[in-house]
Specification:
Elements lengths: L2 H5 L2 H13 L13 E5 L12 H4 E5 H16 L8 H19 L10 H4 L9
Antiparallel strand pairs: 1-2
Length: 127
C-alpha cells in the first residue's frame, strides 16, 4: 500500500486518534493542544501499516511537526552533493561578470525627485 493511500485509510485514522489520546491530546514537545498531527518516527516507515502506536508514532502540533520533519530532512540530505552542470557554471560566470561591470560603472541611484514627492504614490494631492 502506498503511503498516501495509508494516510487516508480508516486504519491510520484509528491509530492517529489512539496516539493523540495516548499523548493526552497535546503536543509532546510544547504541550500545545491545537492543530495536532501524528508523526511517524523515521524507522517506522518500513513497518507501515503495522507500526506501533506507542513506539513508532508521536503527537506533535503543526509547528513542531514542521520543525522535526525539516530537521530530519536536513540530516538526511546534508551529505548529498549535487553535480555541477554546465548551466550552473554559466550562471556563476554571468554573476561575476555582472558584479564586475557594476563595480566599474557609476550607476545612477537617484531618479530626480525629492523624498517628499516619493511619499505620494499617485502624485501630489491638489493643494
Amino acid at each position: 500500500m502506498k503511503y498516501s493511500e495509508y494516510i487516508n485509510s480508516n486504519t491510520w485514522k484509528e491509530k492517529r486518534l489512539k496516539r493523540i489520546q495516548f499523548d493526552e491530546n497535546k503536543c509532546r514537545l510544547c504541550d500545545c493542544k491545537n492543530d495536532l498531527e501524528v508523526h511517524h518516527r523515521p524507522s517506522s516507515y518500513k513497518k507501515i501499516p503495522k507500526e506501533s502506536i506507542e513506539k513508532d508514532l508521536i503527537t506533535l502540533c503543526v509547528q513542531c511537526h514542521d520543525l522535526i520533519t525539516n530537521r530530519i530532512r536536513e540530516e538526511r540530505f546534508k551529505s548529498i552533493v549535487l553535480p555541477t552542470c554546465e548551466c550552473s557554471r554559466q550562471i556563476k560566470n554571468m554573476e561575476s561578470g555582472i558584479n564586475g561591470r557594476m563595480e566599474n560603472k557609476n550607476i545612477q541611484t537617484e531618479i530626480g525627485m525629492s523624498n517628499a514627492d516619493a511619499q505620494w504614490g499617485f502624485g501630489k494631492p491638489n493643494e
